[in-house]
Amino acid sequence: MSTSPIEILLVEDNPGDAVLLKEALKVSDLLVEMNHVLDGVEALAYLRREREYAESKRPDLILLDLNMPKMDGRELLTVIKADSDLAVIPVIILTTSTAEQDIKKGYELHASAYVSKPVGFGQFQETVEHISNFWFTIVRYPTSPKAG
Questions:
Q1: For residues 55 and 2, is the Cβ–Cβ distance under 8 A?
Q2: Dist CA 63 CA 85 (whole Å)
Q3: Could you tell me the domains of the chain?
Q4: What is the pLDDT of residues 60-80, one digit of tens each?
Q5: Residue 117 to residues 60, 103, 110, 126, 141: CA-CA distances in angstroms?
Q6: How much is the pTM?
C-alpha cells in the first residue's frame, strides 16, 4: 500500500456535512487528504488547476453532492465524464436525495456510485468507512503516475 495520502475532493455546499465527513475520515485507518469546494464551478477550477488551485493535487476520488448553487452535481458530473483526463476519476454521488429519478440520472451520467447521506453521525461514520474500505482497499485502479 502506498504511503502517500489518498486524495479526496469533496464537492459540497453544506459546511456541516463537510465537517461531518472530515470527522468521519479522521477515525479511518487510511491516510486521507480531503479538499473541499462549495460548488461545481469551484470544483472545475480545482480539477483543472486554475486560479487559486494551480497547485492542487489530482483527486483519487470525488464525493459529489447533487444540489448546489452555480453548477449543480449533475452538470459537474456531465463535464467531468466528457473530459478524457478527468473521466477516469471515480465519482460517488453523496446526497440527501433518495428520489429514483436522481439515482437513475446519476448512473446515466456515469457516476461510479450513488450513496444517500445518513442522518446521524454514527451512521455517517459507518457509511464513510464502507466507502473508504471499498474504494481504497478492494477496488483496483490502472497504474499511472499521479499528476500533482
A1: no
A2: 18
A3: 6-137 (3.40.50.2300)
A4: 999 999 989 899 999 999 999
A5: 20, 13, 19, 11, 26
A6: 0.87
